[in-house]
Amino acid sequence: MQIHTQIPLKNYTTMRIGGPTRFMADVHTIDELKQLVQTAKAKNLRLFVLGSGSNVIAHDEGFDGLVIRMRILGFEIIEDNATYCVLKIGAGEDWDATVKKTVDMRLSGIEAMSAIPGTVGASPVQNVGAYGQEVADTLVSLEAYDTTTNEVVTLDNQACEFSYRHSIFRGRELGRYIILNVTLKLWKSLPKPPFYDSLQQYFDDKGINIFTHQIVRDAVIAIRAEKLPDPKVLANTGSFFKNAIIENWRLDDLRTKLPDLKSYDMGDGTTKIPTGWLIEKAGLKGQLLHGMRVYDKNALVLVNESASGYVDLASARDEIIAAIRDNYQIIIEQEPLELA
Length: 340
Ligand SMILES: Cc1cc2nc3c(=O)[nH]c(=O)nc-3n(C[C@H](O)[C@H](O)[C@H](O)COP(=O)(O)OP(=O)(O)OC[C@H]3O[C@@H](n4cnc5c(N)ncnc54)[C@H](O)[C@@H]3O)c2cc1C
Description:
Number of domains: 3
Bound molecules: flavin-adenine dinucleotide
Strand content: 25-35%
Order of helices and strands: EEHEEEEEHEEEEEHHEEHEEHEEEHE
Strand order of the largest sheet: 6-7-12-10-11
CATH architecture of the largest domain: 2-Layer Sandwich
């Protein structure tokens, strides 16, 4: 295992921002990981685990510690019967390649999460989700290296405390666990309506009324290609903000300001408001702020067109947050985590 020094983080994050990390190493096995973590601890170095860098923002001053790039592979069938299949997948596997494999196996459960960039190991961190599915729906358990106790532990679904784009891994246990693999339970049934609104709309527009795993995957890939920039072409981290969740009692007041308010009842006394729509209503869609473009096809996405670095990104972000707060009294939150 090689440990590299002074590696520019902008080359390893899809927002293409960030100064050098003091150390960086790829890990391919649990033993390599254990050895690396022990060494880092002995030298009092801070640690950061990186997958594909599609949901992190690095800082201009870089990172004074060790960035571990997760590369542990594996795709194993644990249980297979007439109704379901249980798979154990290495954290370093590519998420979309994994979705494709499961679609080819005619398994249901993650097909609507096609074309999400990133690694399998990062998927529980923000409870990755799209088009009505999220990892929490299919994750049975995961194995992780606990950097506090230096042991490999198994955490079941409940222990991950999943909620909308959240889990313990980006919440109260941030930085404690290094996810090694995830175990998913997928179903041997065809995808069934009702589908997520925009997915159903796509099917209606195309006159599609037979639904296979592949048809759902193809539809999701087509919809995403229309409204999300390819990070290989335009630097971005997908949704830069989480959708806003507000208490239901605030809805009447908000509707007086926004009569055409778009909202989704979460069924728990709260309502989800699409933040991209709020940003558009505030007149910011398509605007260039400090070198960051509010993407013209989807205002939830910020594209790094010519930002000089993190400082520019932070200025653009703070202006957008302030505009939504001042116009609608809603505080929106950044989705990508900070590599700092
Ligand atoms: C164009 C685009 C579209 C996107 N669409 C979606 C979408 O539809 N839905 C969605 O939910 N997200 C979406 N994202 C965000 C991103 O793809 C996901 O969050 C993805 O899971 C990040 O994977 P990664 O490997 O790049 O993680 P990274 O960005 O490298 O890391 C993200 C976080 O996870 C932690 N982490 C990574 N691996 C591990 C591990 N093995 N153990 C512990 N912690 C770990 C990191 O420390 C960091 O805090 C999109 C991003 C882009 C660029």
